[in-house]
């Protein structure tokens, strides 16, 4: 049984995740930076630097949300970044942000399913995801579709939460994630389920070497994992 945001509902994970992000979309950026103490911005910058040598021209940002990773990817001077997300609410916030920054000639935001991408094979020089793969209904299917649309020689760079292993950081992190984060999340977003789901989805996610194994299973090679900030999150890299 996969972890879902609303345990009392009959809808599948994909529909529930879309509804959850629609519910919290207007407060998402505030909460994201607040709950991570702004360190998520640093994580994204480090992830984008992993593509600096490759200089990708056309980039796909999956689970783009409000577009923060897509905007960060402009540091690579691409010709185009396409962001895809299943939440109309998140995309609406992202489109406003991108328009305000006058970046809509470089970034295109589209409604779409990460497990059924509406792009031809071998289209993108790079595929990036930040804090999105653990929300896939079918992890292997989503990663396989990312592999399909990536050009041969192209790279995927994925940032995702992971589980710290070392004492005492592991214990402090688990306490914050289980008891503090849901309370702040509920207070600001008015959706308690969203911030109860977050620690549950992180706990259920196959992080570290387990995730590299899944990447390799769908075809990625030269896979690497780089833990960040005592293992709170990790950057994963794979090549086609």
Automatic annotation (TrEMBL):
<dbReference type="InterPro" id="IPR029063">
    <property type="entry name" value="SAM-dependent_MTases_sf"/>
</dbReference>
<dbReference type="GO" id="GO:0009234">
    <property type="term" value="P:menaquinone biosynthetic process"/>
</dbReference>
<dbReference type="GO" id="GO:0032259">
    <property type="term" value="P:methylation"/>
</dbReference>
<keyword id="KW-0474">Menaquinone biosynthesis</keyword>
<keyword id="KW-0949">S-adenosyl-L-methionine</keyword>
<comment type="function">
    <text>Methyltransferase required for the conversion of demethylmenaquinol (DMKH2) to menaquinol (MKH2).</text>
</comment>
<dbReference type="GO" id="GO:0043770">
    <property type="term" value="F:demethylmenaquinone methyltransferase activity"/>
</dbReference>
<dbReference type="Pfam" id="PF01209">
    <property type="entry name" value="Ubie_methyltran"/>
</dbReference>
<keyword id="KW-0489">Methyltransferase</keyword>
<feature type="binding site">
    <location>
        <position position="85"/>
    </location>
    <ligand>
        <name>S-adenosyl-L-methionine</name>
    </ligand>
</feature>
<comment type="similarity">
    <text>Belongs to the class I-like SAM-binding methyltransferase superfamily. MenG/UbiE family.</text>
</comment>
<protein>
    <recommendedName>
        <fullName>Demethylmenaquinone methyltransferase</fullName>
        <ecNumber>2.1.1.163</ecNumber>
    </recommendedName>
</protein>
<comment type="pathway">
    <text>Quinol/quinone metabolism; menaquinone biosynthesis; menaquinol from 1,4-dihydroxy-2-naphthoate: step 2/2.</text>
</comment>
<feature type="binding site">
    <location>
        <position position="130"/>
    </location>
    <ligand>
        <name>S-adenosyl-L-methionine</name>
    </ligand>
</feature>
<feature type="binding site">
    <location>
        <begin position="113"/>
        <end position="114"/>
    </location>
    <ligand>
        <name>S-adenosyl-L-methionine</name>
    </ligand>
</feature>
<keyword id="KW-0808">Transferase</keyword>
<dbReference type="InterPro" id="IPR023576">
    <property type="entry name" value="UbiE/COQ5_MeTrFase_CS"/>
</dbReference>
<dbReference type="InterPro" id="IPR004033">
    <property type="entry name" value="UbiE/COQ5_MeTrFase"/>
</dbReference>
<feature type="binding site">
    <location>
        <position position="66"/>
    </location>
    <ligand>
        <name>S-adenosyl-L-methionine</name>
    </ligand>
</feature>
